[in-house]
Amino acid sequence: MATYVIVGAGLAGAKAAETLREEGFDGEIVLIGAENERPYERPPLSKEYLQGKGERESIFVHGPQWYADNAVDLRLGTRVTRLELDNHLVRLGDGSRQPYDKLLIATGATPRRLPGPAYYLRTVHDSEALRERLAGAGSVLIVGASWIGLETAAAARAAGCEVTVVEPEPTALNRPLGHELGDLFARLHLSKGVDLRFGTAAAEITETGVRLSSGERLAADFVVVGIGAAPEVGLARDAGLDVGQGIRTDAALRTSHPDVFAAGDVAESFHPLYGRRLRVEHWANALHGGPAAARSMLGQDVVHDRIPYFYTDQYELGMEFSGDIEGYDEIVYRGEPESLEFVVYWLREGRVIAGMNVNVWDVVDEIQELIRSRVIVDQKELSTG
């Protein structure tokens, strides 16, 4: 009987285990996670759950009995210390060895850290600790105008905190959205009373606030750092797998070893539409990548080519984003951005490469079809719908 081992008990790993059973795999499935919590979804941790909305049980991928009912050997609080690819073995922190026939690495990413006392937001315990602190704080300083940073800022304002955000880029979300759309998010937060400090970095974090690279000191009750995440590639690199920005895979999520696969935040996978490898950290990639990897492990013909997708909720703004803006040369709007009810398209050489709908719903399929089609669009028609 074959044994499939999944290292990483997050959304990608849990959905891979689910798919293996749905596809008829009757061998042994071992799902190994370093956290003590069973697999859960991370988006609520910086959104509704951080604001105290929704029950704790709602964040989990499966109910507590699902793993036993589906014969998935879920090992929580267990660290993997080494992968022995030639021997098809996983070494565990307690010194034991777990053999496998096929291996999926879904170890995710970990927050990039700065020296000094600060809160980070990655795990359910991080979210709960931060929520408790927000409830009793007067002021919070957030390092990083990232998605996590801005969602945390919105939650902090909802909790009644004074909020300052420090960001070395010239505006919010400059890298994922570009200056023009990043400015829109900056204006939203300014309108809610957030103090935004762009073009400066946190040189020192202390118990009483932050010293900026300019030398200015900003006081706060506590500091939250949201400056991105780094993929957990250490096990893969040490094992000799091909690693770049993440664990490199083909479009079927197979790594440089034929019996080893990677999915979710940790994978840098070849995307046929873009003709290059992408590492996508967002929820949808884990949601769909885990099942794709499972089918690939089973020998099915798999091409994981979904359009990158992300969503956020900040104050009264709800947004969905599809695609990748790299190399864009033009922006086209449908609707007025200042109304916070519009669709925006990023174009390259007349073709749509990304789109974002803000408080406009049921258009994601349309946007993604435009991206996939690679047709040269009529910009007037695009702007009027």
UniProtKB/TrEMBL annotation:
Cofactor(s) annotated in UniProt: FAD
* E.C. numbers: 1.18.1.3
Q: Where is the Reductase C-terminal domain?
A: 309-382
What are the entry keywords?
Answer: Dioxygenase, FAD, Flavoprotein, Oxidoreductase
Highest taxon above the source species: Bacteria
State the Pfam families in the record: Pyr_redox_2, Reductase_C
Gene Ontology terms, MF aspect: dioxygenase activity; ferredoxin-NAD+ reductase activity
> Where does the FAD/NAD(P)-binding domain start and stop, copy by copy?
4-289
What PANTHER family does the record point to? APOPTOSIS-INDUCING FACTOR 1, RIESKE DOMAIN-CONTAINING PROTEIN-RELATED
What protein does this entry describe?
Answer: 3-phenylpropionate/trans-cinnamate dioxygenase ferredoxin reductase subunit
Q: Which organism is it from?
A: Nonomuraea angiospora
Upper taxonomic classification of the species? Bacteria, Bacillati, Actinomycetota, Actinomycetes, Streptosporangiales
